[in-house]
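> @MW can you paste both from yesterday?
MW: sure, first one:
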Amino acid sequence: MTTIDAANNMMTADGLQTLNEELAALEGDGRREIAERIKTAREWGDLKENSEYHDAKNEQAHLETRIARLREKITTAVVVEGEPATDGAVGFGSTVLVRDGNGAERTWRIVSSHDAAPADGRLSADSPVARALIGRRAGDQVSVVLPRGESVLTVVSVG
């Protein structure tokens, strides 16, 4: 079980694969599309007053920035897979079942911010709820301040 530490670029293997797929798409099709737009805009004449050309060049700059950021994330990625909670504490990769004050239960897996999709049960390790749950065990209660108010959650189980 891995707890949240200074490695801000922890992610699952699936998350890393998603980043690699996005990078490949941007470096392939994304660059080709921008190059074609620039080529077409150049054919329209005077570049000083050619807004299509300038828009395409700006989009190219944004694309290259995104590619550079993805490469950095991939290079510095720390792949962490959730392991069964041997010590029973919530950590990165854990699946945790919680019950709120109204008795409603939710199951979340603690993942990287890139992998997060709360509606699908994947909660970012950087979120207030996950931060409150990290290190807790079944039976523990945590209080979390959310935009809609304070919520008290009880950890039902950790896996």
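MW: second:
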Amino acid sequence: MMTAIQALYREDLDHGRAIRLWLYVVAAFIFAMVLVGGATRLTESGLSITEWRPVTGALPPLNEAQWQTEFQRYQAIPQYRQMNAGMRLADFKTIYWWEWAHRIIGRIIGVAFFVPFAWFLWRGWIPPNRRAGLWMILALGALQGAIGWWMVASGLADRIEVSQYRLATHLVLACLIYVAVVWTGTRWQDERAQSLFGKLDKAAQPVTVRAGAIGLVVLLLTQIYLGALVAGLRAGHAYNTWPLIDGGFVPQSSRLLFEVPLWRNFFENPLTVQFDHRMLGYVIGLLVLLQLFNVAKLAKRGPIFTSAALVTAAVIVQVALGIWTLLSVAALPLALLHQAIAMITLSLAVVHAATAIPPRVSVRTEPSSPWGGPNARAMRRRAKQS
């Protein structure tokens, strides 16, 4: 009997490892896509492909005639006429490859998620109570592709760049998908196998630790949204002083809030958007220090303390890098590094939150005894063979 249970335990652990590896690979692709998307935005490459062809668009131009056709399409939009008039074909190819790489990574992510997901479902490796969440991630991925085109379309007719509203929506949805994938992978474990051996003995952390961990993730997502607005408005190229902005620590209200209606200042006024981005950075820095102190005081030292310390270190590095990027007038290497560290910080914050809130065993997926539940027949067969 014990041999059969141990065999089941090992098999379920192998399934869990395979699923976690799959989710982490998908997360790595999303991470790469966000970075390439940042490079695409900073190099003004996002409008170089003026059509959305989800299937045939996977192939780049293959000969000189096709390159000329793509170039002529780009020459028909306002960005070319107002910003890049006289651009050579060789220069166009540079911005084209950035946007093409961004789109092809999106397609790779779709395949990398869907094909293994379908396989795991067919093999019965995914418990019923986990399937809805994975289907939701797949649906959000499909929505992300549509929102990406919705964003690009905003810059093809009456503008020379994409809408900052749509840019921020596109980036934050990518980050939400990334958070969902990392969260699911970090918390994935086979509840049935763990319950058989009584391994699930993690006590929940104090409520203030859990609230602080979740709060950090929410604030970091909000900060990334504000960062996208800063990029969309090119606010990083203005007010390049620190710690003062526009001559003061807090600018004059007449310059912060002159747009009508008032809410537009928080999305369309470069000074207000950059000021909000700075202030929220200070708030996150303070909160992460308080979280580390609270974890050290209330929680046992171990994974929860380590994850809190790593998030704190990442936030400190990110704040310093943000200041450096600002003073450099958003130099391309620093701006890309700033975005990369933002994603690393978000990753560490998600792992910290997952550590603070351990998974719970669902009574629907675990048998009350080794001989009951969904794997009862398999266990009996293995027991007889042993």
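> thanks! Residues 257 and 263 are 9 Å apart (CA to CA).
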